[in-house]
Design goal:
alpha+beta; 12 strands; about 50% helix; globular; Cyt_P450_sf
Length: about 425
């Protein structure tokens, strides 16, 4: 039998046990960075590289509708989210988010978050121990809710932060983390839907052109506003990914602990280096293992094929650690992004493509802006790193330092 026609063994269970290494390990022996496999009962084709990014994001090749497993929708994105749409429907819904990429808006969010950070640091200095991952989640929640126009009486930052973190933490795993994520999604989606209904009825005011206002007024079809449930999904799709920057801040603290020489340059306020540091944190540390879409026709890449209705995978973690692209991929070296700018088809920690017209995360610019600002503040913060488990397990998706990066003796600059 032709090797290309042999039945493929389903590799879903190995994915659950191997985590981030699952796809790179299987692609290691492929000269063309392509792999045929089977996932979730469907034939799948995995690809990697800048040309593969453009191939993956061609809407004639891949649709998102029906591609995202229900457990991911019920935890991470929400049913009916922009991530599940294609074509004109996707472009219309994305108009809700694109104004958030305006530089003034990004600056505004950064100012709200850094103000929340400065407030929090004063309280951290009174505590015997602070787990940065958890504490930064609360900071980000306070900042993004103020920026998004949520009324203060509607926001209890600590439980909201726990729920937003839980939605991200439990999307890719069975068991208790997944159950917590489902409960968190249901709880906060119901709360945000009630808030949206209150705004529409005039019981609560939303600042003009705020995120809350835009969500309440958005129409996919002329004359038909989003139902309150879908509007709540999209409001959470602004809040949740902002709070997910907690992962990158914990990784930044880990990097500064392992390679403290970078601290002085960040402390000095070198903006270009801070951005390069943010890019390198996002490249070096694991976040999204891969992305997937449902093939709309039979596709062939470098001699390997997948039928219509199969799965096309983009190897995110593997590409961000590809020796052909990065030379020394397992060296943490922010300078690489000072030597040449980040190519959007090479550096894909939050996906690839064009954020204006395609499925690249529209919040990527926000992530970079927040991370480079918070990395500078983190570098200027005085603290002690006590003995703890700072391992970052690659079997856990999404992973993070086991201890959450605990610090003691925090002293404000």
């Amino acid at each position: 039998m032709d090797a290309h026609r042999r039945p493929l063994m389903d590799r879903t269970l190995p994915l659950l046990t191997e985590g981030y290494a699952w796809l790179p390990n299987r692609m290691r022996d492929s000269a063309d960075a392509v792999l045929r496999t089977r996932l979730l009962g469907r034939p799948a084709l995995a690809v990697r590289g800048p040309e593969a990014v453009r191939f993956f994001y061609d809407e004639g090749h891949v649709h998102r509708h029906g591609a995202t497993p229900a457990p991911v929708l019920d935890t991470l994105f929400g049913q009916g989210a922009v991530h599940t749409l294609d074509g004109d429907a996707h472009r219309v819904r994305k108009e809700l988010f694109l104004p958030l990429l305006d530089p003034d808006r990004v600056t505004g969010l950064t100012e709200h978050v850094t103000a929340a950070w400065d407030e929090a640091v004063r309280s951290w200095s009174e505590l015997s121990r602070v787990v940065l991952f958890d504490a930064v989640g609360v900071v980000l929640t306070r900042g993004v809710c103020r920026w998004a126009g949520l009324p203060r009486q509607a926001v209890d930052a600590e439980p909201l932060a726990r729920d937003l973190i839980a939605m991200v933490d439990g999307f890719a795993t069975p068991g208790p983390r997944h159950l917590r994520a489902r409960r968190a999604r249901a709880r906060q989606q119901a709360r945000m839907a009630r808030l949206i209904e209150d705004v529409r009825r005039g019981k609560v005011s939303a600042p003009a052109d705020s995120v809350l206002d835009r969500v309440c007024r958005h129409h996919d079809d002329p004359g038909e506003p989003l139902d309150a449930g879908t509007a709540a999904v999209e409001l959470l799709n602004v809040l949740r990914p902002t709070v997910a920057v907690s992962w990158f801040v914990a990784f930044a603290a880990h990097a500064l602990h392992r390679w403290p020489a970078h601290r002085e340059r960040l402390r000095a306020g070198d903006g270009a280096f801070a951005t390069a540091f943010a890019h390198e944190v996002r490249r070096f540390y694991p976040f999204a293992p891969f992305l997937g879409g449902r093939t709309v026709t039979e596709l062939t890449w470098h001699g390997e094929s997948v039928p219509a209705g199969g799965i096309l995978l983009l190897d995110v973690y593997g590409q961000n650690h590809d020796e052909k692209l990065w030379g020394d991929p397992y060296a943490f070296r922010p300078q690489r992004f000072l030597e040449r700018p980040a190519d959007p088809d090479e550096l894909i920690p939050q996906g690839g493509g064009d954020p204006a017209t395609g499925h690249r995360c529209p919040g990527e610019r926000i992530t970079v802006g927040l991370l480079d600002s918070l990395a500078v503040r983190l570098a200027r913060l005085e603290y002690t790193v006590p003995e703890q488990d700072l391992r970052i397990p690659l079997r856990r998706i999404p992973t993070r330092p086991r201890s959450g990066f605990a610090v003691t003796g925090v002293r404000a600059p």
